[in-house]
Amino acid sequence: MSSSEPAPFQAGSCQPEASSEDHLDPSIPPPYQDRRPSSPCSLFSVEESETDQDHAKLPATTTTSEGFENGQPSFPYRGTRVAKRSPPPGSPRGIYLFPSLLSGEKCSEWIERISECNYFDAEEGRNQVMLFGREVEGKPSEGGSLGMTGLPDWSKGLVQELERVLRPELDDLHRSLLFPSLDQDPSGQGGRDGSKGGPPQICRSRQMILNLYSPDQGITSHVDLVNRFGDGIILCSFGPQGRGIAMDFEPVSKKEEEKGFSLFLPSRSVLLLFDEARYDWKHGIQPRDFDLVEAEEGSSGKVERLQRGLRLSVTIRWLLPGADVVGGEPVDHHRVEQRPSGSP
Ligand SMILES: O=C(O)CCC(=O)C(=O)O
Ligand SMILES: [Fe+2]
Prior knowledge:
Layout: H1 52-57, E1 61-64, E2 68-69, E3 72-73, E4 82-83, E5 95-98, H2 104-116, E6 128-137, E7 146-149, H3 153-166, H4 172-178, E8 205-213, E9 219-222, E10 233-238, E11 244-251, E12 261-266, E13 270-273, H5 275-279, E14 281-285, E15 290-294, E16 303-307, E17 311-319
Parallel strand pairs: 4-15
Antiparallel strand pairs: 1-16, 2-3, 5-13, 6-7, 6-8, 8-17, 9-14, 10-13, 10-17, 11-12, 11-14, 15-16
The protein binds 2-oxoglutaric acid and fe (ii) ion.
Residues 222, 224, 283 line the site of fe (ii) ion (FE2).
């Protein structure tokens, strides 16, 4: 992290305690040419709000046999993978999808808080923001747990809620990689970044990157920078209820038995990537405004064509020791692509 003076923290403001501007790399080209959400108080416009009522009105889903032959996509969907609703057999080790882990109420609240922060500006092509926080040892009076400094309040709330809902779902190793605590068992195996399951390094830094995608945008297939970020990445998806995107996974080195697949990430879902899924497989999103998704988990039959909506992703990662010093390293940026003309 840069050594510049932190900006003064204003209670209740969106400003992180240390300005996120310090960390924005000017070489990052604007990733989105976005349609500005119509409501200034919500990222998602009135038509795209988070209510079940609206969901019922969405003309977004069609269950179709048109465009399929023998269960395989044919014209106009030839070459479009059908996304699974859970990681299929043969998925890499370390991929976990929780389709509706976050409550609608909490998600709406975070979206409101994020909207108020005015991070995004379509006219200026600003649709990505990076926030950084540094871990601090908690006060013994507060249970001695680890806290974060430098992040805006809404994001601390998100991390706390993620910790609350994920802790019971994770085994010791994965829990300790995402949410190290002071009383951790030092006998843990550790992650592939060399971190141990033992007492955490004090003063680690978290990065949170927010990406706002319009429906026809995607992200180039990539592995998150291995020299910058640790093992254990949290990907949260926000958007209108019932919508989502298909994320594609491809092995970095093609082995016969490893086949790429596509996974549907609905709004309010949380995806975790550790180990093979984090280091040996690439992830990306095709730039198109719909996805083909299996109608029900594990079903080999019916396929839904789901129209994409505006989507906000929040990716949360630990910076490796020393990686919070800016300069000299490649930037973690993956260009968000527009839909190529002529594709379905
Ligand atoms: O949109 C997403 O969930 C993916 C973001 C991502 O892969 C990244 O920021 O590295
Ligand atoms: Fe990524």
